[in-house]
Amino acid sequence: EEMLRQALGDLSMQDGRISKRQPSTETHPGAKAWQLLEKIAPGFHRRAAGGQEGHWANLDEAVAGMLRIRNAATSKVGQVEEACAASLAELGNKIATFMVDPASPRVPSFSPLVDRIRISGNFLGVPEGVLLQDAPGVADADPFRRNVVTKLLRDADAVWIASPIHRAVDDGVARQMLGEQLRRQLFLDGHYSAGICVVATKSDEVSSLGELAQDLH
After folding, report:
1. For the segment 130-167, what is each residue's pLDDT rounded down to a tens digit?
2. Crossing angle between the packed helical segments 171-178 and 180-188, to the nearest 10 degrees
3. At CB < 8 A and 24+ separation, what contacts does 13-20 make?
4. What pLDDT does 200 receive?
């Protein structure tokens, strides 16, 4: 519900009303919020209960109106979904619905509503009590994901940055790779002077173990 409140807040007008109309330009502060709400409830501005033509009276009325739209996504707002699996492949299939947007824009998407996904188990190489938190980048176009990573960087004990590096780099190249925005955030949170671990990986580009084995040969 917090995500809905934040997105609808970005559609607020000067008098406090919440607009149901699509922002006229992509650069409008509410453009991203509109796109996220359309993913959760396609056609929400035509279907949302309550309010007047073209607007809701206030933020509380807007949130209540969105929650009156009952579909596969909105029915999960505020809930915790649990899944157990015997393998990572099985687990991936079970949580894919909550991570990947549907192919059709008419089908409600769960992904904007997901606050976090927690995976626990006995994993080789991960000491007991250690929490590894995957996070989006600080330059993410989605303002909601940017807020998430800002909070995570503030609370983290250490920062590892995964990068598709395929050759040796020196300290100067590493600093450029971080980007000005990320360096500033790390400095403000006290991580820059404490040291940062850069993980060189190309794992995101491997679609299957068969493909990897072929490349190695």
Report:
1. 888 887 766 666 667 777 777 777 777 877 877 776 66
2. 90
3. 13/55, 16/58, 16/59, 17/55, 17/56, 17/57, 17/58, 18/51, 18/55, 18/56, 18/57, 18/58, 18/59, 18/61, 18/62, 19/54, 19/55, 20/44, 20/45, 20/48, 20/51, 20/54, 20/55, 20/56
4. 74
